[in-house]
Every structure is written in C-alpha cells, then in structure tokens.
Amino acid sequence: MAHRDLHSGARLASLELLCLAGLLAGVAGCGARDPTRAAARVVESISGGLDTDVLRIATSWPRSEQEQLEQEFREQTSGPVPVRLVWVELSPGSRLDHLGTRALPVDVLLGGPLTEYVRLSRAGQLEPLDGQGAPNWLVTRRQQIALSDGFSQVREHAAFDDPRVDPPTMTWAAGQLRNGSWRAGYARLVLLFSHAFHRPGWQSGSATAAANRGEAAQTLRVAALPGSPGASELDPSVVPWNEGAAILRGSWHKSQARAFLRFLADHHGATPGRESPELDPEVSDLLADLLGATLVDAQEELLAAASAVARAGDPASAQAQAWLTEPPPWPPASVEKLQSRGGESALAMVQDLAGQIAPDPEPRFWLVQSWLRPARPIDQALLTELAQAAGGRLVREPRFRAWLRGEWTAWARQRYRRVARLVAGAGSATGATPPSSPRPRDRS
Q1: Between the CA of residue 138 and those of 33, 97, 167, 285, what are the distances in Å?
Q2: Which domains does the chain have, with CATH numbers?
Q3: 255-310 residue pLDDT tens
Q4: What phi-psi label fits residue 273: left (phi over 0), alpha (psi between -120 and 50 degrees) or beta?
Q5: Which run of H or E residues covers position 336?
C-alpha cells in the first residue's frame, strides 16, 4: 500500500508540474498583462493547496513571534477558505520601501521603525486602513530600548552599532538628542562613541553579537520592559521603540490583509499611526548621516583625540573636551573658507559650488541664501530646515547628500586631529586657541 501511495503522490506531483508548465506557457503566449503575477498565483495555489488563500507578510520579528501570531490569527479568524501566512524574513536594517520589486510581492509589512511607514505613506505606497485616512499605518508593537545590563547610566566601553544601518541605535541616539538640549545630547553621544568598546560597522546587530561573545559590557537591547510606559521620561538611557504595520499598495490579497490588521488592532492593541516631527524620515536620514560621518567614519581620529583629552590635566581637559564635542558648523567649513576670501570672486565660487551639488534652480537658490546667513552649529532646527528646503528637493538630490556627508566626515576628522595635537603639545595649556569654530558674520 505504501508503495502504491508513493507512486500515486509522484503522479500527482508530475501532473501539477505539467499543469504549471502549461499555464506558464499559456500566460507567456497569450500576452497577459502581468505574466509574473499570473504565474505566481499558480505557484501559490499548488504550494498552499486549492482550499488555501495566501497572505505574504514581510517582517524582521523572530520566528517564535511569527509562529505565535500565526496560531492566534487562525484561532481568532474563520472563513470558508483558510488563510495561510507566508513569512518573508527581513534583516533588522532592511529598507521597507525596497520590497515592491520582488517577483512575489509582499502584502503586509510588520515591524520596523515608524519613520519607514511615514516615508511609505507620503509616497502613496500604502493601502488605506479600514475607516482611516492617511497615514495608513498602525503602531503595532511598543517596546523600549535600554542598556542590556539594566544600569540606568551608560558606562565606558559600551558597544553601539552604526546608526545608518541599525534602526534601534538610530532611534536611541535621536532620543538622547531630545533629552534636554540638542547640543548637550550631541556632546553625550560623542563621548559615548569615543569610548566605544566595539567599533560600529556596516552590519545591523554586530554590537549585540560582540556582547554575546563576552566582548562588551553594555549594548542596546530592544525589549518589553517592566514599569510604566513613561519610564523613559525619568531615565534618559531608556528610549521608546515603536514599530508599525501596514498593507502595501497593490496587495494581491487586500481582504485577507485587512483582516490581519484588524486582528492586530483587536487582539494586540495596534492603533492608527500619527505623524510627528520626530518621525520625519528626511530629518531622520540627515541625522543618521551626521552621526555616521562624525561618530563612525571619523572614529579612528575620535578615539585618538578622546585618549589625548583623558591624559590631559585640568583645566585643559575640560576645555579640550568642549572643543571635541562641538557639532559641525553651517555653512560647512569649505564654504566658510571660500567666503573668507571676500569680494565678488568669493561669491562666484560659492555660487559655482552650489550649482555643482544642487543643479535645480530653486534648491540652489535656497542653498546660497542659507550659506550667506550668519554661521551656526548644526542642530535639530537646522536639520529640519534642510529637510524642508525647496519642498524637500534639496535633500533628495544625491549630489548634495554625498557632498554633505563628505563635508561632515572631513570636518570631524580635522577637528579631532587638532584637538589631539592641542592637548598633546604646548597648545594644551589654559587659554589655548581652540579649533576653528563658527563665527557670526555681518552680512549687511
């Protein structure tokens, strides 16, 4: 009997493959509008069974949570046709707006930072929610980012990841900047990264891996922490970490996708999302570029400068540390150098530079006008201005972004080297001339 069943199964599989080949050939031969979609439906039907519908969910959540959600979804929903959840596993740092190019498109996004959902909603890439208008996404999981060993303060030799590739690190760093003054928060981040045990790299989660090997005392961990949701207001080292969920525009299984989001709202406390200034994706991207340039790309120089400052005696140490933790200036240093020449030739060179990195007339005009205003340090207000300049077209210009990242990295490396030289040599004495800093200029 077993032998007969084996041959019966083989014949069924062969028949399915022949049907699939015939259908694919028919799709290609008939000039279907979307042959990939038609072929994918055939694959889904065969793999799931004729009595099963499929919902594809892209997520970075661990396998155990996927299985738990799937079991709860089956128990809480019912219908004539069962829904089979197909999980598309993402790495923690994956960009959610890059999923639309897959051969088998994703229906639902689950997890990831809320800034990514704001980005997708603004771009019109999300389906409307039931009874809701924009921004068309849910807040589905509320956790907190805290230090792995439970201490309320960050000690030296903590391990951090690159904020450009690790969303929790980026969210935690942004939370430090919102705690008190932006300037003081930036100084804290410089000092923390200057004593980092683990060098941040271009791989999300590498700091946690180092900690798991026993190579670091503290890392940032995402967890559902005990205590009130407002604990982060009392402890600056604890930052809220909220994740989203949404239906991608063009989903093949909209009714099933909406049923899944209703399940999240009814049984897991998911609530409609809401845009806020701290969730602006363009500002967040600029901040990630700034922190990556000054704390990661220039880390070799930062570590050397911090070591020299630590060896210097007071009051030189406090003075040098103040220089070390200054944020970059605006306009950037190279623009300041051009303007210092004065006269019409300097203005012509500034305009020529603006034309090279921002060819579009409106962003270029905004850029030149901004450079002609009095110099000031980078802060949250300036990053917001840059993000909104010329209707957002300036920050979406690749040439400008590449130039700005290079400027910030070059400035940071030069600043850290000068600090190290000042405290190591005769210039470390009290009253030493600080590295060049933004100076107000009279533009009248």
Answers
A1: 33, 16, 18, 22
A2: 33-143+243-278 (3.40.190.10), 280-444 (no CATH)
A3: 999 999 999 999 999 999 999 989 999 999 999 999 999 999 999 999 999 989 88
A4: beta
A5: helix 333-339
